[in-house]
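Final report, section 2: Outcomes. Of the targets proposed, ABC transporter ATP-binding protein is the one most frequently requested by collaborating groups, and we therefore present its record in full.
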Amino acid sequence: MVVLSINDLCFKYNERIIFNNLSFKIYQGEKVGLLGANGSGKTTLFSAICGLLPLGGGDIFLFNKKIEKGKFYPEIGFIFQNPDDQLFCLQVRDDIIFGAENLGLSPQEIEKRLQDVLSVTGVENLLNRFSYELSGGEKCMVAIASVLIMQPKVILYDEPSANLDLKARRRLINFLQSSEQTMIISSHDLELIKEVCDRTLVLNQGKIVADGNPTTIMGDRPLMEENNLEVPPSCIN
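The predicted structure is given below as tokens.
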């Protein structure tokens, strides 16, 4: 089943072409790694999928429903690169339940969902902590919990392992591997993409220039170098 369909997407920023008839589809249950050099438009693409940008052309469909600028789509979860941009309440509990409260859910349903996401993300011991006291890895998992509680159908992860130490990064990878949700992960952490994703897209000059198996794509040195990317160590023969 097609979850997300990007059709001939066009977008300019200060006359610079970011997307030039960009098209691809994401299918239910896929874990897709989005690769591209700095400035290739990965974060911009995520913003467009969430309906935050006025498109210059093309359409985005979520389950055959057209995404329109300025509308809120709880079916789409967006994990920011910097958790501090996502966590703004005093306590962890308030940060996690904020989105669910704004969906108009009953207190009973919110509490049920809270317990579910605490179990999945393993942040039960952080519930009564102040958000600003948390480590980078703890903030990352709390930000994920704050999105999961809204039960999105597809989650966009923007550089989720940025600034994490090795232990927190490994915990994140284990979580992403075990997750059953459809996801797109934009990351320069190519080893994370290789471990987690079953499909990889390479974005360059406004188009998808490669689409396929992560190991095959990232092991293709000419392709990677042509798109200003490095072959990860585990793919070097």
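The mean pLDDT is 92.
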